[in-house]
Design brief:
heterodimer, A: 234 residues, alpha+beta, four-stranded antiparallel beta sheet, 5 helices, B: 172 residues, mainly alpha, Arc Repressor Mutant, subunit A, transmembrane helix (chain A), transmembrane (chain A), membrane (chain A), DNA-directed RNA polymerase sigma-70 factor (chain B)
Amino acid sequence: MNPEELREQLPGAAELAEPPELDTALLVRRVRRGRLARRALTGGTALALAAAAVLGAVRWSGPGGGADAAGPSDDPYACGRRPPLAGPATANGVTLSVASVRRAGHDAGPVIEAGFRTDRAFEAIGSPPNYLEVLYLRDGVVVGGGPVLKRPGDRYEPGVDAVGYVYHLTPDSPLRVPLGARDGLCPSVRWSQVWAEPGRYEVVLLVDPPVELNAPPPSGPPQPRLVARAPFPR
Amino acid sequence: MADWAGLLAELVAVRGAELNRYGFLLTGDRAEAADLVQEALVRVFARPHRSWELGRLEGYVRRTMLNRFLDQHRRRRRYALLVPRVAGPEADADHSGPVADRLRLLTALDALSPAQRACVVLRYDEDLPVAGVADRLGCREGTVKRHLSDGLARLGAALGTDRRAPEEGGGA
């Protein structure tokens, strides 16, 4: 097909979209809920946290408190940066681990499971598994990950759904959470390169400490994110 | 009403139709397009920004729509066998002439991969240069050119106008 023909025809095809029915009042309410949840999750006021808990909307992952204030180019978790990974693997009685990393194919990222081990039974609320943050490091430098992977020069602040997701934690069996697709790579890297030298790469999981469902809001400064690491499978 | 709420209302009023149209070209489905626009608006306005200028906000919304569209397809690939495809516009009642041509084009666009479709929409509807498309998608220009070339070939085959593009995927 000729590009010019396509240029002529696409606007016509787009006309088949009916006029949008966007309810501004509803959008404003949804944005307001998202903002409340964000404030709660970035160590905001107890009032905001209570509101978010009532709405069942508490974020568990995504940029930490400091990252929001920084511009995207300052983000330590962006492509090419050497991120600080001094965070603990355990907080509030929950230990995070990379439960498994399996190779799925030559041109795709690994299949990853997060593991949560706990010393007591409780329900934690957080982001859905597909929003738990993964980084791929090569020699300690970010070369991929997701769902929020900032590429070089990316000045966009990607959104993270602030939808509550309940995790049932029990002491007898660690919870294994499949994370879904994490195929994002920085522009200079290809999966074929990664699988050619898997020993140079590692998987890092970054998760905000779990918030117990219906527990009183935590006081004090925000806790550092839990960090778990594992090598790529060979 | 907070400042952001006023801006949200203004963006919806002034650019809502264009955003919806963009979403429709990406998804080929009216309901999905509406969802895409709404989700993107909520995400963008729920986050802090250095600039709350309307044009920049629209850029954020479009980028969020594109990311979400590609992300949804990555996930959907895994469920493709379980989730039956809802009827597309071709299921609508009797169309002929130009409308039929448009529906054929939409159906042909459905045959493209999400990345090819995104490249085609950004290049030929948004009129971005190849470099701009690459920047938007976070990939190399060569990759964009390949997607455009493959996409045009597929569209040509589907529409029965199969002849190689003289231009693609070249230039600015």
